[in-house]
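Troubleshooting log. The previous run stalled partway through. Resubmitting the same two chains, unchanged.
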Amino acid sequence: MKSSTKTSAAKCSLPAALDVMGERWSFLILRGAFVGFSHFEQFQAELGIARNILANRLSKMVTHGLMNRVGCSEDRRKVIYSLTPKGEALLPVLIALRQWGERWENCGPSNPVLVDARDRRPIREICVLGVDGRVLAPCELKWIDSSEVNQS
Amino acid sequence: MKSSTKTSAAKCSLPAALDVMGERWSFLILRGAFVGFSHFEQFQAELGIARNILANRLSKMVTHGLMNRVGCSEDRRKVIYSLTPKGEALLPVLIALRQWGERWENCGPSNPVLVDARDRRPIREICVLGVDGRVLAPCELKWIDSSEVNQS
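Second attempt completed without errors. Output:
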């Protein structure tokens, strides 16, 4: 991958994204929410995370707009956590990281498997694609200044 | 997104992946490597990271096989860090997280821009795709046990 810019990134959204997600537990809580966890106790039992850390991380995710926190209609003492659209939009990040672990950390196939609900076939590997749909390897990519981008 | 499995993930590669990448600096060092940094001093100057933390993280990334560490041929006292294929394979994760930050953290467009080297057009948004190439929204996805997957 070539770069025509000397500096890393005068303006990059990655640090802001990492303010929310640059932490191990945040990803694991997110994974729990994606497989359907909604109660504090579910997250706690499944992740084996200390209660104060879980409370802190859930609160942070609510503050950052990744999760909603509402009272359960049947039992107002219970609280339900659910992903917002902003939280759901992290799915490609989560899946790409999981696929990378499967491929490179010798974990073998993960279970459960994320499938297309229509035909129960596994999703594709997450790749960097060009506008024309080609899978782009690092050597086919280039970092350029936004003024040099081909907008056609 | 529906789940037919009660537990989060009896076998998930995400924790292993997070052992390597579940930390803010690791992502920022990776970003530096992708835009072409190769010397300790470059990473240090651009990221503003404490030297001992940078040394620790680079060492961890070498240990985990994400980066190679070799002596510079012109000056053997200098060390060059470069991404291995395993490290390069994290690009979709990094780009998906950056795009999420652009879209949801009100950062606006990032600069520099990652483009297809062939035509300088920006890469596509990273999405979860079905085998047929459809972009799948969370409501079109399902977590199922691997024994229930449609392999056809």
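Takeaways: The helical segments of chain A are 14-21, 24-34, 40-47, 51-63, 85-88, 91-104. Chain A has one domain: 2-7+14-148.
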